[in-house]
């Protein structure tokens, strides 16, 4: 039986995540309200703008529901999704979901016009993976219980902690479903 993965569908490259998850053998559901979380085996928090995503989660009553979901099920955050998951965010008074033992820096690699692609070695996933970085954060530090999966220019850009996976880049914008497949096949 295929896993059923939800994609938080408030902002970002939602359809691209859906496509990558389906190519990884999952059934996919869009999550726009609390009821959409029922029956899911995992959840993807896509890229976008983390502050706006948080506002929308609050507006639709999804913030606490996603936090409760994450207490039991796997979550994969990409770019802004990584920021939503972090326990510390440079320049922000407090975290959002605070479920991943990392400290992040928003827009760490520059503005939109400074977006780039980089060849990454991602531990346990791929020796040559194209990371698409768009206004990307990076992980400044990670607790000892966090497994660093990839770095770029000495900055952590992908990690896993238990049932949580995150990356600073946009795996949904490549034709390589390796990151999504890794998440789905736990």
UniProtKB/TrEMBL annotation:
Active-site residues, record numbering mapped to chain: 79, 170, 172
Residues involved in L-glutamine binding: 48-50, 106, 134-135
GO CC field: cytosol; glutaminase complex
Domain of life (superkingdom): Bacteria
GO biological process: L-glutamine catabolic process; pyridoxal phosphate biosynthetic process; pyridoxine metabolic process
Annotated family: Belongs to the glutaminase PdxT/SNO family.
Subunit annotation: In the presence of PdxS, forms a dodecamer of heterodimers. Only shows activity in the heterodimer.
Role according to the record: Catalyzes the hydrolysis of glutamine to glutamate and ammonia as part of the biosynthesis of pyridoxal 5'-phosphate. The resulting ammonia molecule is channeled to the active site of PdxS.
Protein name listed in UniProt: Pyridoxal 5'-phosphate synthase subunit PdxT
Pathway connected to this protein: Cofactor biosynthesis; pyridoxal 5'-phosphate biosynthesis
Catalyzed reactions: L-glutamine + H2O = L-glutamate + NH4(+); aldehydo-D-ribose 5-phosphate + D-glyceraldehyde 3-phosphate + L-glutamine = pyridoxal 5'-phosphate + L-glutamate + phosphate + 3 H2O + H(+)
GO molecular function terms listed in the Swiss-Prot or TrEMBL record: glutaminase activity; glycosyltransferase activity; pyridoxal 5'-phosphate synthase (glutamine hydrolysing) activity
Classification via PANTHER family: PYRIDOXAL 5'-PHOSPHATE SYNTHASE SUBUNIT SNO (PTHR31559), PYRIDOXAL 5'-PHOSPHATE SYNTHASE SUBUNIT SNO1-RELATED (PTHR31559:SF0)
InterPro entries for this protein: Class_I_gatase-like, PdxT/SNO
Key words, A-Z: Glutamine amidotransferase, Glycosyltransferase, Hydrolase, Lyase, Pyridoxal phosphate, Transferase
The protein's Enzyme Commission number: 4.3.3.6, 3.5.1.2
